[in-house]
Amino acid sequence: MNEVNQYILDAIKINVWGGFSSPADVQELISDLLEEGADEQTLRQSVGNEFKAKLEAEKSWPKVTDFDRLDLVFNSLKDKGIICLHNAGYTMSDGHEDSHEVLHKHPIGKFFGYCFYHGQDLERAVPGGGLMLAYDHIDGDVPEKISVAQTIKQELEKEGFVLEWDGTTRQRIGIPNFDWKHRGSNCI
For the whole model, what pTM was predicted? Predict the structure, then answer.
């Protein structure tokens, strides 16, 4: 298999197993990534196979996965004034932008902070590289940002996650042993 096909196959796997993409989304991704040397027919056929493999694997997953627990934390944080986004854009700047867009849909003062992970974080998490969470305060500087992070940390630890964070704004909150299992889109 050549590099182009392997690169696109890896992207297909991340998108299927990430749980946020439908088969149509993954087919569109292939269209975006196709370049000379790609075996389009094989790549497109692999999408259904990958969704079937994921669906089969899900049968052996625990009833409540790390993703489910993270989602519970995100919902709990929302009640505490921190909006949380799954798969927010592809980069840190995309994640901040997406967070601000969501915040503008809510009344001023409802949220004091936000938290997210982005597509590059998802690419690391799906194959077992842990999950990193970004955070920020809506209006504040360092002390307020740390307060947001501490609230996130407390909720994650209540849910049983073991974290890596140095307590400063220079580092995102890491969940090094995050076992990515998101049932999400199960369409075949």
Answer: 0.93
